[in-house]
Design a protein that fits this description.
The chain has 174 residues and is mainly beta. It is built from no helices and 16 strands. The strands form four sheets. Strands 4-5-6-7-8 form a five-stranded antiparallel beta sheet, with no helix packed on it. It has a five-stranded antiparallel beta sheet with strand order 9-10-11-12-13, with no helix packed on it. A three-stranded antiparallel beta sheet has the order 1-2-3, with no helix packed on it. Strand 7 and strand 8 form a beta hairpin.
Length: 174
């Protein structure tokens, strides 16, 4: 049989009213006033998630922590094996990771890494408000740099290689 509560009615748990669960008419809210809020599975023998007050959110797979929030962002965690972050796009769509510094205050702070449906890994920058391809690597390992973009080597930029669209240029500076 169902137990029903009207909107905004609360289920209150704990001697000190430490946990309250309610539906406010729009959202389900769990208010945790003491300790860490944990979601367990397998008869409470394995963690699925932990929500630590003023701290991390931790996600688990098979009782092993895989992802955690941290003061400097998000960490992918694995013990005993390589840690992996996989971006899996649906069929016919590109996989993309975007990196932005300074909360995107300047266009120059934006970079994008993609694996396109043409099976090329590409690096883009956003120098003037539009993403521009800087480099691509195909499945054969061939690297392509677009015209007018340079491959620069050395601390003093002493070797530069590029194409201006009509000819290849190699410049050595000493």
């Amino acid at each position: 049989a169902d137990v029903k509560f009207v909107d905004s009615a609360k289920i209150v748990l704990g001697t000190g009213n430490d946990c309250k669960i309610h539906f406010n008419g729009t959202n389900t809210v769990v208010d945790q006033y003491a300790g860490t809020f944990e979601i367990a599975v397998a008869n409470a023998s394995e963690y699925a998630a932990k929500f630590i007050p003023n701290g991390a959110v931790e996600l688990y797979y098979d009782n092993s922590k895989k992802l955690e929030t941290h003061s400097d962002g998000v960490r992918v965690v694995n013990t005993g094996a390589d840690a992996a972050l996989r971006i899996l796009a649906p069929s016919g769509q590109n996989g993309r990771l975007e990196l932005t510094a300074d909360a995107g205050a300047d266009n120059e702070d934006n970079f994008r890494l993609t694996v396109d449906t043409d099976q090329k890994f590409k690096i883009y920058g956003k120098p003037s408000g539009t993403y521009t391809e800087f480099l691509s690597i195909d499945q054969s390992g061939h690297t392509r740099i677009p015209d007018s973009k340079k491959a620069i080597f050395g601390t003093g930029d002493d070797l530069q290689i590029w194409s201006d669209g009509t000819q290849g240029i190699v410049r050595g500076v000493t």
